[in-house]
Batch of 2 targets.
Target 1
Amino acid sequence: MFSSLNEYLTLSLITNHRKMYTLQKAQQIISSNIKRLPGESVDLKDGLNRIVFSDITAIVPQPPFDESMRDGYVIPESDEHDKATKRFEIVGEIPAGKTYADRLHPGTACRIMTGGCVPRGGVHVVPFEKCAEQNGEMVVAGHLLESARYIRKKGSEIALGDRVVQSGVALQPMHLALLSSCGVRSVDVSTRPSFGFLCTGSELRSLSSELEKGQKYSSNSVLLEGLSTSFGACPEDLGVIEDNKSDLLDFFLKAKGRGLDFLVTTGGVGPGKYDLVRDAFVEAGGQVVFTALDMRPGKSVLFGILEGTLFFGLPGPSFAVQTLFNVLVGPAILAMQGGKGRWPQKVKGCMQHQITTKRSDVLRLKDGVLTSDRGSCSVRVAARCEISNCYILLQSGEICYPKGALVDVYLLAG
Amino acid sequence: MFSSLNEYLTLSLITNHRKMYTLQKAQQIISSNIKRLPGESVDLKDGLNRIVFSDITAIVPQPPFDESMRDGYVIPESDEHDKATKRFEIVGEIPAGKTYADRLHPGTACRIMTGGCVPRGGVHVVPFEKCAEQNGEMVVAGHLLESARYIRKKGSEIALGDRVVQSGVALQPMHLALLSSCGVRSVDVSTRPSFGFLCTGSELRSLSSELEKGQKYSSNSVLLEGLSTSFGACPEDLGVIEDNKSDLLDFFLKAKGRGLDFLVTTGGVGPGKYDLVRDAFVEAGGQVVFTALDMRPGKSVLFGILEGTLFFGLPGPSFAVQTLFNVLVGPAILAMQGGKGRWPQKVKGCMQHQITTKRSDVLRLKDGVLTSDRGSCSVRVAARCEISNCYILLQSGEICYPKGALVDVYLLAG
């Protein structure tokens, strides 16, 4: 208990002197504290959604041999300017996957299928529909030997050693297909950051317990597990603990030796008497970088370093956890994997309705829903319990955004 | 080999009589053949990205009790119109997670923390900053007892039995948090469709082999594995086989007894001599629904039913596999899980540059990149080897789309 109101006021005064950063400054300082993780080699088929560690180059060119682009006949060099009807003796057939062992001599032709391997001496494919077959010969009007030769040359799409996928790209199914064609069996991807999380709050119980009056289920555990997974981290649930200084200290001391890449707590970062995360973190040897943002949510959010582990002390309410995760923690997880592109990505949206804010002293991030409407990016405030796909940035100083106004919007990753 | 060119021409004639559908008609007919899969119960934390089978309702209301919205003092009913200074004897403290056993009697107050449980008789929270504490009493100016009572009533956000998440929704981290708060431990989600795939082509080798001349690595295996996973199916790689009628027939006969939800092949659906998928499928008892689309890609694509299994015979080239998967197969996988919303989702995009097409006889789907540009949805054709995020629909009959034109765009799911 407070011995007097003065104790509360003193606490408030201390917190008013907290290190308060703008969102941009916070993003910069977090970014400057990130060390990129090493790479690891995984089987191509396990590479889906992983982030490429270093540029991947082709081991097999595309196409891997001169290939026919049509079903037809492959013929050797002939005089295209001679308009007379020409005849070629059919000496073989080349379905896909097979080769013609011999060289193609003048006056001879092979039937060839799309994707078939053009034999030595073959320079021109005449599609079936442009010629005829008579008594073992292919007959074609000379003027039909147009410039199109219907042969895709070896390496014309991707040469041996060409870069196929750039470092920092999150591998999509089509990348895997491309890499597979190019003979790439395994890929170097960034290791996944380890991500430990703890929910603090004396009122919190895990879902397996029964609630007593005054208690709540801890909803941030599943939230953090889901969000960290979406950003590519390996989550580890470190449990739920009460607002108790010695338990918190114990937790930080244990976490310190774990060598985690990320440690995140929820709750206990406000100015209240039971907000003990900061003290325990500092006592365990943590270095505080900032304790507040000039933004809502973000009035109370701690960022610091605990022996090489990046620590985020997020507030308790789930909506604030989600927002701060998406704009601070998630982008840091991506950056640690060398992810390409800046997250959160900022775009402009056109307000679907007017927004008025009561206070305009700080930047406000409002859950939004961005949709495409006849060629324009239209944005509205998300309804209660509706899942947002963006945040609308309501700048400090502005209290009214009329319908149709262009506003800054942060897209949610994934 | 063809015994004569006539054989080839006969084949071509047959294929000209193929069942050709528009994309819209194809989507409708696939949709009408889909039976929704049953649900299964999974732990909440395993529910990420799964599709909800039936509406989920709250087991615990939100908030679960009358809770304080501020750090302050909770007091019983008092006369707000009396502007005189009031005093309340402080009889206890209620941190989050604890309760005050007694009823709050007139003239008494308890300290209470944000999220603390309002005791019986408590109707009003006075924030710390609006009052003072003197000699064991809370002192407040009567006029400060404003209308705001800083109490969130039990069930005011979500009442017991309220629907929290609707059937058909793919669960996101924030849904999990919401459900967790509402005491939901496990969720009924749609079972994942089983999805078998086979790549056909005598030129194809798996990545573990060495290539001989004329051969290629099968790139569609990883592509189909990745795409089907992204849409929520359980993929099973059924291998690579040659263009050989008896092997194909054998494959379909075996697949028939498996009770798969989806069966997909690539290659072997063109008009060529070695395109044997259709024949083998029919001989195995498959019913052909359509064999071509009035669209590029899609000139050759087979959809049919094999004893309750939906069968898609896709063409060989990876770009065509990806496109047809995204507009036909993927949406069917989602629909079988009861996924909400129509895929592919169609929006309008504004052309970043002029497109001219050579032929305009059919609808063309072109790989595109959709971005947001100062409030408008801007779209351009994807560069070679660039990963697209949409398809631009170039309508038949149109041959030129000028810069700035509004075009239809299919968004890629996931």
Target 2
Amino acid sequence: MTSFMRTTTTFVSGARTLPGEYYCAPEVLAEETETLFRERWLWVARAERVAKPGDYFLYEKFGESIIVLRDKSGTLRAFYNVCRHRGTRMCEAASGHFSGSIQCPYHAWTYSTDGRLIGAPHMQDAEGFDKSDYPLHAAPVQEWEGFIFVSLSDDPVPFADAFAPVLDRLARFNLDRLVTVERREYDVKANWKLILQNYNECLHCPTIHPELSRVLPYQSGANDLHEGEQLGGYMEITQPNQSATSDGLACGVPIGTLDADEQRRAFYYTFFPNMMLSVHPDYVNYYSVWPVDAQRSIVVTEWLQHPDSVGTETWSPKGAIEFWDTVNRQDWHICELSQLGVASRVYRPGPFSPLESIPAAWDRAYLAAMGR
Amino acid sequence: MTSFMRTTTTFVSGARTLPGEYYCAPEVLAEETETLFRERWLWVARAERVAKPGDYFLYEKFGESIIVLRDKSGTLRAFYNVCRHRGTRMCEAASGHFSGSIQCPYHAWTYSTDGRLIGAPHMQDAEGFDKSDYPLHAAPVQEWEGFIFVSLSDDPVPFADAFAPVLDRLARFNLDRLVTVERREYDVKANWKLILQNYNECLHCPTIHPELSRVLPYQSGANDLHEGEQLGGYMEITQPNQSATSDGLACGVPIGTLDADEQRRAFYYTFFPNMMLSVHPDYVNYYSVWPVDAQRSIVVTEWLQHPDSVGTETWSPKGAIEFWDTVNRQDWHICELSQLGVASRVYRPGPFSPLESIPAAWDRAYLAAMGR
Amino acid sequence: MTSFMRTTTTFVSGARTLPGEYYCAPEVLAEETETLFRERWLWVARAERVAKPGDYFLYEKFGESIIVLRDKSGTLRAFYNVCRHRGTRMCEAASGHFSGSIQCPYHAWTYSTDGRLIGAPHMQDAEGFDKSDYPLHAAPVQEWEGFIFVSLSDDPVPFADAFAPVLDRLARFNLDRLVTVERREYDVKANWKLILQNYNECLHCPTIHPELSRVLPYQSGANDLHEGEQLGGYMEITQPNQSATSDGLACGVPIGTLDADEQRRAFYYTFFPNMMLSVHPDYVNYYSVWPVDAQRSIVVTEWLQHPDSVGTETWSPKGAIEFWDTVNRQDWHICELSQLGVASRVYRPGPFSPLESIPAAWDRAYLAAMGR
């Protein structure tokens, strides 16, 4: 962590918030959907959801339904949930298990778990028909640190390039072996970017988050990722608190292989475009933010713990869940007030302070990704 | 029936399903509304709804409200429900009876049942005002086989031309004297065309319709209308079933004047654009399909029987209603799955099999009607 | 009142209702929003709502939230509810009291009640930042006859010019000292202009309003404002009725300083674009009409009385409220039927009678204001 630098050293003087149309215009969201959400690698689930061959779940966003499955040979795969005959959606259940093949319920076209068409009743009488011309349409899929990412692009940037700054950086947290202990969803009447920007600064913590401010002072810590598509750093947990929980006590065994200094820190990163990762000594909570429309978003969040913390009498994630549920709701509310305000005709980009260097950097990454 | 030919003889090799925009794009529905739904003759009700002079009902579709009535002299008429003074909608009740005249509730302009303006308070003081300049706006209306059809076009193709292939073809079924015994409406989250296409083939019956398949084998029968705006044919009822009912027994007296062979058949026709007619030995069930938006439709269906079957202790339409309510719901569900799938960006037109020659012909009629 | 002239003398021969798109097209409403609603002086509240320094209420229309307040020195002010930092909406409560300053809840930027930025944490470290560059954005605000008007334009026509025809004309009614005794809101599925046009004529009263017609004969009275943006006149209250109340009796002390003739009259005025003022001997009821979309409006109405009528055992506004609640609902219903009718493709502008000279004049004022 010797590369950590104080936030203020990277403050870009004169940085201002984005113009109002970025938060309100359906046209901007349409462009973001094409340029970002249908193009980038997006988190879709933890890998534990498809543990065994034949397991699948549906990833349903941006007008698509994707079957993410582990095929018979154990390979992770993703297919569009669209029959090649007349386009029917084949799987309805949000998750399940294929015993050998995938069959369309309409006219019984049948596919292997690696996507090949293996049955098509009465099509043998159609001149020139060849089953090998009609495999399921595959989507790029990648597993990293126990997270599954999918892209809706046929040809996305290689995952290793997109995540290069953090690819090996988080190894000490052992994220790949954590297990999910809670999932919550929030409906927030705010543009998705306001939620990312809010996550990226703690200048608002003294007014918005009394509970959080007692554990994590807003001027503590430092950032180690100041520019680019992965941003963030750490904050210091004030003693005698052990973690960010409702009673200040640890709620599980340490998740990572950390030295004493790091064991008293909380790490906060955003992975462009829409993932936020919070690593605490004894648990992880992470978020993905999904636009519903330009002025409304769904936030999905899960809490992870070391497997040794799960199903014991000693440990319970309750204190971490309660703590962040409170803080999350405080954040969503102020994001909703921001949304209402930036929708005004008189709103003009306002000045960022030095303590808002990370949201300013996030805005730069966003504008670059949008080709502005 | 000597003109019946096997479906396979008319299979057009290489036929494929329509591109996705035809099922999803509001622009296509807007064009269909102009080109088809506001232009064509559409079924609106059975003639028994306006049995007596003065009887009326409202036909309310595509932004219009039409008063369909039988005038004082017994002539069937249709008028736009729009006062010529300030445009007020005059009739609110979905059906009723006019005792002599139609009066606007706003400023009391009054019309005869044949549409002439006969009263307009204080208008005599407006220079140049002449009541004969302000009759109600009439809509073309036609009765055929007991069905009432209305067009929202000022100048539609003559009804006899539009329905030429079937004008006299159904006479043996005595449709004009049947009476309505049940009406149901279904809300289907699918484009209207998917519902028509689904009706036009039984290749899906083995997987979707176990009850139907027991009575009507999907490869039985033949089509007699293979190309054009009226399409369809018959299927054979498997013995010992007498009809397509939940117990396989006839639920009424024979509706038509049929020979022994025809008495064991069920006839299925579509009348472009949005009517589907099912004729069974002892009852008729027919459907009209109405777009709500590009991805949602309302299906209105009624069951008809011979008057001798109605109000007796011997006969009840219950078995026919239950049977088709089950089959209908199976169809709507698979249409909804089709809608979800064809909305995907990766959906591409897929190949029709020889057993899907009638939906392929329907698509050709549709594209021709749309000027494609 | 010697300038009063009979309506019929100003009837413009050949006047017709507006084309259908004016009542149905979202594009027309978008243009009206820019040209009329965001430009003109609009009623927002009675001045009694901000009686003391620090009192405020929110005026929230047309995508804006405006803080209307009486500042520390007693001056009436209006500010956009938008923090100059990151645009956050600052006040959430619909009304309240500021004790000295207005603080943004997000990062604690703080403003004086006259709009100056007086606190901005950590901004002192941002190069070139000067608090005086970031006052709240002010909106033009005006008080007249106890009514508060606000404009969303930065540079509206001076209020005294816009309201010149009525500026001193209503002095005898002592409107500025009346107090609000009731407020109601109605949701009407009709274009806002249909509601204004309906208010402007009583030709519909015999068919629509049996209760009103007994008290105020539709051909009684005269108009004194026949052309322009303020229109209207009076009707005669039929004896032995004292006022337009459910029992015909006065429900309060006289509001104005009127001679015996005027004490038996009811006055009805529209103030372009969206205010309607009804002055009765013993109470006032007034309305503002707010478009929700092209085919739907919210009507806000309040009843006012002389302060001597309020809180007494002798007087109660109940009879006036009940009377107009009944009449209002009759009006909204016929406006909704009008809306349905003018949405038809076959609707064409119809002819106005001489008794509809004021709606015809209103339409002319509207078209002029829209630059047609």
